[in-house]
Amino acid sequence: MAETIFFYLFAGLALIAALLVVTSRQPVHSVLSLLVAMFCLASLFVLLGAYVIAALQILLYAGAVLVLFLFVIMLLNLDRETLARTRSFTLRGAGTLVALALGMSLVRIVARAMAGRSVPPVPEQTGTVERLAQLLFTKYLLPFELTSFLILAAIIGAITLARLKDSDR
Amino acid sequence: MITLTHYLVLSALLFTIGLAGIMTRRNVILILLCVELMFNAANLAFVAFAKSLGDPSGQVIVFFVITVAAAEVTVGLAIAILMARRLSTLNADEVSLLKW
User: Fold this and answer.
1) CATH code, B89
2) A60 burial level (CB within 10 Å; 0-12, 13-18, 19+)
3) Helical pair B28-53 and A2-23, crossing angle rounded to 10 deg
């Protein structure tokens, strides 16, 4: 029973926050709404027994990624006029319609695929550090090592982009 | 009783909201934010499946998704800063240098 209440609480909050991300007029408000959505999703991960992922979600997304967004927005410090120019919603109606259509079909596909399916109960498996680490360093060792290359490439790319001078054009 | 379907429907709705944002907003920073929202919707589906199938592989995938998202944001925001400095705009429609 408690699970149901918490699910609807956090799901509703996450949806409202996501709508605010898309509709708010100030970029800073969008970032802060996304922060709320991230925390709601982290709580849903806890409900699903994925404790490590919930912690990672808060540490990495809320702690690193969104701070980076805030940092960039404040660094650029857009004035009202520039913001107004980016606020023109091109094809607002068409975009919303297409997204709505896709959303309806996604929900219908999920509902239909799950309709006659009774999922067999499986033993409760929680995502503890031990279980995840065992998988990460055996079955998924190669992808794990490859992510370090990806991050290295991202760091080099970001530094190169940031150091570009006007004479390098 | 909350089933897998509940989580999948929530994930689909969040994904749709992110997609609507990408298609209607023109500020590149907000487009990147909406991409993050879509990543999160996919993560939720992965974790829900991991729970319902009793296989923690889904959670490992989410770990990779978070890493890739962090890398993507780093480069994307660097490009956004460059755009703001060089072209003095953040409007995705005004940047058509790659257009033929």
Assistant:
1) 1.10.287.3510
2) middle
3) 160
ipTM, 2 decimals? 0.90
Which residues of chain A have a CB within 8 Å of the CB of B2?
Answer: 3-4, 7, 47
**CATH assignment of A2-87+126-168, given 3.30.300.30, 1.20.120.1200, 1.10.8.80, 3.40.50.620?**
1.20.120.1200
CA distance B99 to chain A (A): 18
Cβ-based contacts of A91 with chain B (< 8 Å)? 23-24
> With an 8 Å Cβ cutoff, is A40 touching chain B?
no
**Count of alpha carbons within 13 angstroms of residue A115, beta-carbon side:** 6
* pLDDT tens digit sequence for B15-61: 999 998 888 888 889 999 999 999 999 999 999 988 888 888 888 99
Is B32 within the bounds of a domain?
yes
Q: Rounded distance, CA A89 to CA A165, Å?
A: 32
Residues facing residue B91 across a β-bridge: B27
SS3 state of residue A66? helix
Q: What is the mean pLDDT of each run of 10 residues along chain A (169 residues)?
A: 90 94 88 94 91 90 89 81 62 81 87 71 71 88 93 92 69
